[in-house]
Amino acid sequence: MAELFASGRIIDIILILVLLEMAVLALAHRMTNRTPRLTTLLPNLAAGFLLLLSLRVSIADLGWVFIALPLGLALLAHVFDLAGRWPKHEPNRE
Q1: Which of 6, 10, 24, 94 has its CA 20 to 30 A from that of 59?
Q2: 45 assigned to some structural domain
Q3: Is residue 39 included in any domain, yes or no?
């Protein structure tokens, strides 16, 4: 178990689980129409996935550019997620 963490393979497993989670959520929505659409969950899932990917790249010591790219994309996904959750402002009609 220690080798799983020391090598970073645990992150690979979690990345695969996040992809599996996306597939299960999409399938659950398609089958029941009672779960949130994947499009509403995707920015949040993508942000987490990209943060984990950045960590994995860091552990693999691939260089700062390969760390910065998923981090920047995670930021964009996070901002997109926040924008989707932000209440819509309706102008006063007085």
Answers
A1: 24
A2: yes
A3: yes
Tell me the C-alpha distance between 93 and 85, whole Å: 24
Q: What amino acid occupies position 1?
A: M
Query: pTM of the full predicted structure?
Result: 0.84
The residue count for the chain: 94
Neighbours of 48 (CB within 10 A): 18
Task: Kindly report, residue by residue over 41-94, the tens digit of the pLDDT.
Answer: 999 999 999 999 999 999 998 999 999 999 999 999 999 999 988 887 776 766
Instruction: Name every residue whose Cβ is closer than 8 Å to that of residue 66 and which is 6 or more positions away in sequence.
Output: 57
Question: Is the confidence at residue 18, as pLDDT, over 70?
Answer: yes
